[in-house]
Amino acid sequence: MNNEELKTKITELLPSAIFDETGEWLNINVEPGDWLSFAGKLRNEESLFFDYLFCLTCIDWKTHLTMVYHLSSTKFRHNIVVKSTLDSNKPEIETVSHIWQTANFHEREVYEMFGVNFLNHPDLRLLILPDGWEGKNPMLKNFEDPINMIKL
Amino acid sequence: MIIEMVIAGIAVIGLFAALGLVLVIMERRVAAWIQIRLGPNRVGPKGMLQSLADTVKLLVKEGMTPNGADKFLFNFAPFIAMMVAMLLMAPIAFAKDFQLWDMNIGVLYITAISSIMVISILMAGWASNNKYSLMGAMRSGAQIVSYELSAGLSILTIVVFTGSLNITDIITAQADGWWIFKGHIPVIISFVIFIIAVTAETNRAPFDLAEAESELTAGFHTEYSGMKFALFFLAEYINVFIVCAIGATLFLGGWMPFHIGHWEAFNQVMDYIPSSIWFFGKTFFLIFVIMWFRWTFPRLRIDQLLNLEWKYLLPISMFNLLLATAMAILGWHF
Amino acid sequence: MFIVKYIKEVLSAIRSLLVGMRRTGYYFTHHKEIITEQYPDNRNTLVMADRFKGEVVLTHDENNEHACTGCTACELACPNATIKIVTKFDITPEGKKKKAIDKFVYHLELCTMCNLCIVACPTDAIKMAQTFEHSVYDRSELTKILNKPDSKIRAGIE
Amino acid sequence: MFEEIGTNTEGDLIINVGPQHPATHGVLHLVLTLNGETIKKVEPHLGYIHRSIEKMCESLTYRQFIYVTSRMDYLSAHINNHACAISVEKGMQLEVPERAQVIRVIMDELTRIASHELWWGAMAMDIGAFTPFFHAFREREKINEIMEETCGARLTMNYYVPGGLMADLHPDFQKKVKEFIILFKKKIDEYDELVTGNIIFINRMKGVGLLSKEDAVSFGVTGPAGRGSGVSNDIRKLYPYAVYDKVQFEEILETGCDSLARYMVRIREMKQSILIIEQLIDNIPEGDFQAKTKAVLKLPKGEFYTRVETARGELGVYIVSEGGTTPYRIKFRSPGFSNLSALDKMARGSKLGDLVAMMGTLDLVIPDIDR
Fold first, then answer.
1. Structure pTM?
2. Rounded to a whole number, what is the distance in Å from the CA of C28 to chain D's nearest CA?
């Protein structure tokens, strides 16, 4: 499907979606509350069939956090980017690790690096950082570590 | 009598040391050439003294005992391994009329004593208080116990042909031709099975599950260091030597020279070569084959290892024994 | 038939093992294939590739002159703060002040040999040397001053 | 994290594989729950070599950050650099000269062969055969020599810059690559004799570490590991970059879903890489090796995502730019990280000895996982 067809189809599924076509792929902004049901529809809708989550990450914009999901379909070969803006004081979003299993590890990484709390995640623990790093999120822009970070 | 025993003891210990040095350098050289490397070449001429240097290193290393280990068993296990290796030396005929103890049940004695080896490995694995060691020990327990069966059955083939358990009798029976040549197919099959089974019994690749490096770090001797490790290491090589010596004795005629039927001149030339050279030549050839296996094959998995024994080697060797018995009764061998 | 299949299985298994043993046996007997390089022994005949990135050097000619103007392009290009250029002001014979390097400090211990400084240099003053034996007993020995004592900038380079 | 190590309430044995373990090829830490020899659960603990390359890159300029990515998946350093170079070029809308693109593809494929070569030796060593390791290194050494001659380094070359290459090819490059192709074609059959055909090896790999096609997609398993499960995911074919759309090659797919299939994919892929190099080596166009760029690179505001196929799978480089000289946020979607997440699924119910076979065929490079 090309971007126009995707747009009409997605508007059917989620009327509140906001589109942005500046990038290479179609960008869709969704509310964090809508994400879980929307993700399920993206995965299971026969004509969309986004079965491959190839990138899951987060961006710290200082004022807010943005979750970015890159989705692809191995059947139709179309790609979309789903974004969701989170409140940086209490970043919370539903997990999608039961829809795309790769999200399990990627969400754990985002959890420790950005402090985003994934609701209903089966195993939300530190993956990369050692014990005792809970609450300190190294990838946030305001993170300071005078010992381990070397400023050039 | 006492003096004789002391001399024999010193000779055995001396042989152990010499064999250890020779076999280690041989293994490293074989490995190197197969792996397109040069191998040890720094100590002594062409690196021949490398294993001596290694021994000195191991001697001066601290022998550590882990905190949670069962101290007595941990320190005792390597000695059992060495004792078993020493006991196995007794009935082997190194040359003509050169044997420590020519007992009438030589073959039975060898199979009986060699099964004690597993105790030292189990002891080491258990006493180390290390999970890897324990798993290695358990693996080798299952392995050695099962492979003894087919090793024993293939040895029995020769006993059936010779009609004697005495090592000297077995060798003299091969005066007119080694069993591998005059025993037909059953002996060849049992020789192949014997080589596979003893490779497994001595825990060497492709059956080195007890110390499978990439799975269990070093298996049952993970916690051993210094001289205690060296004893295990030495015992492994001595065991390889002994099983190869037994293989050479049973199948390749021991110290008996190579004779062809009625070629008198040829046979006389062969007789000029000392019997000890015949014995060691055959033994080292078998050792080389076992080393060749090690540097060629991947390792088996534990269930495949037991499958190989119980589904392939054991049925084949049982059937083979039946065939051999029938042939011996009917006198179908040369 | 079961027995035939069983025997075939055993035979093909043995064959596959023998094929492998033939290959290793070939290498065991053909010592010409050995590829070991005896490194410290062949040190004198060892030739490094001419582009090999070993360490950064400041080239000096026979008059003890180099081409570094002290523009700090390399310092800016370096991702690891490997290079630190300390400048001073020389008095030219005409009495004018002229900027020149005092010290070209190079931290070999931080360098990743990425070649970005060489590319950035506008006067080709620095280049990569083909040395590779950098081990020293003390870390401070790895901090080097690349310009030789009393060296000057070559005439005509701005 | 460490209290749980010992035996759990059900009496299962819990052992630590790593961080120092011969089979993990680095500092990977797996906590295994075993019932006898059977694996009940695999739990990776990562981060022993985490350097936060993403954070580092936020303070490096677009010229500087490329070299860091060589340290990520050090076995496909060129391909990582290629991904970053493409991202920057995409952002700046730079036209890369044809010559540079062809050379990049040749270098990428040489890197891929070198990486698979090392994987083959290391995996055979995990399985217990020591000799293949040295035989693999013999051919890999030739590639390293070619790299050393042209790029100046053997492993972390940093040869790609935004807009092209750092230097032109060495005059001997084409001759040496042709020599290598002849040598390699001879030696690849020896690999089959030594390992592929071996009955012990086949038994160790067949039916081990099953990963269905659906799971492979769901876990994001890419590269040869995913193609072993029949997922068509070769970025070189699906979203061609550089000159991959102009060369003929085949995307290798196996349907075995087990370790043997993943093994065969890599072995066959090496031959395809040779095919690509053969097509290009005589047809390197003349011209510049580098596009003209400004001294200071600036990316416009926006987001740039590049997907390339490394030796291990799909590498994604996601650059978020605020218009400055450094990336605002950069994310490396490394193939190893996603591939590793499928290990638990694959390993459950198999034997401890199989774990090394699975880890071997997933081709884990730890810095790639930790970044």
1. 0.87
2. 11
